[in-house]
Amino acid sequence: MTQTSRRFLPPEAIARISRLEILARNVVEGFLSGLHRSPYFGQSVEFAQHREYAPGDDIRRIDWKVWSKTDRYYIKQYEEETNLRTLLLVDQSESMQFGSGKLTKYEYACQIAASLAYLLLRQQDAVGITTFDSEIRSRVPFSSKQNHLHAILATLDQNQPSKKTDLQRLLAQVADEQTRRGLIVVISDLFVDRPGLFKGLKLLRTRGHDVMVMHVMDDEELDFQYSGTTKFEGMEETGDLVCDPRALREGYLKAVTEFVDDLHRNCARQMIDFQTIRTSEHLDAALAYYVTHRVGMRKSVRS
Predict the structure, then answer these.
(1) 158-163 contacts: CB < 8 A, separation 24 or more?
(2) Is there a contact between 117 and 131 (Cβ–Cβ < 8 Å)?
(3) 178, 184 in Cβ contact below 8 A?
(4) How many Å apart are CA 138 and CA 159, to the nearest integer?
């Protein structure tokens, strides 16, 4: 944590951010130690291209032959290091406040984002983050520097879920702003207008971006194990409902299944990787999903 961040963050916030950083580090390092011969992780051996030297780069990777011909410094960039500019989009709308277990959906989404950011920075990839509800709430620009993680964690910590979600508007804005192609990871419960969502995702794909969707859901939202007269408090201006949930369970589960299937089907049409992740699942599930996606990207580039 830098001196500047300590000056402006209260001690309790610093403690929360530190815990999140420790959690992300432990999850990622534990996950990586469990991988065997992954085609994504490990030492790069296949040369792909050059990029211009930037302050902070390892001078041992300067190509001195290129320097002797051009009088400019260029870094050798390997296959695993190309096309690794990743934007994390984290939903902080009111529906993300829900949680029947230890974590709300937003807290779980933050842990996913923190773990992915740590993983990406560990691989020296550039990562940025944007939080949103009906509009963009905060941004952290792209960087591949290790201390960039603190800015990301501080941004996640300072936000509290509120308002409705407008993903179509957000994705259209992201498509206009991100002129350089990259990977965009959407982390959300996707309680949005689906036609608008699909239009936004299609626009990102049309602009050449690779897209992943991590659909975060609570166990009770998927299983609906409530019993007895229950008051359900609506979020995002949906109103409250008092009922016997057992009378609704069959119809509710059918609607949820159709909802998830529709998301999966439409994402598949756009060649977008989609995964529903329960908040009760270990974060390894999200990391494994990301790694599988990255391996798939490399294979498609080669073919």
Answers:
(1) 158/13, 159/92, 159/131, 160/92, 161/92, 161/93, 161/94, 161/95, 161/96, 161/97, 161/104, 161/106, 161/133, 162/92, 162/93, 162/94, 162/133, 163/93, 163/94, 163/133, 163/134, 163/236
(2) no
(3) yes
(4) 8
Span 130-179, pLDDT tens digits: 999 989 999 999 998 888 999 999 999 887 777 788 899 999 999 999 98
Distance between CA atoms of residues 148 and 162, nearest Å: 26
Backbone CA torsion sign across 203, 264, 258, 106: negative
Cβ–Cβ under 8 Å, residues 112 and 215 = no
Per residue in 56-96, pLDDT tens? Answer: 667 777 888 877 877 888 776 554 444 468 999 999 999 99
Residues 148, 104, single domain; the answer is yes
> Domain residues for 247?
3-34+83-302
**Domain co-membership, 263 together with 154:** yes
Same domain, 187 and 114: yes
Say whether both 163 and 292 belong to one domain: yes
Residue 41 lies in a domain: no
**Residues 189, 276 within the same domain:** yes
Instruction: Count how many residues are written for the chain.
Output: 303
**Residue scoring higher pLDDT (53 or 223):** 223
Which pair of structure tokens corresponds to residue 28? 């990622």
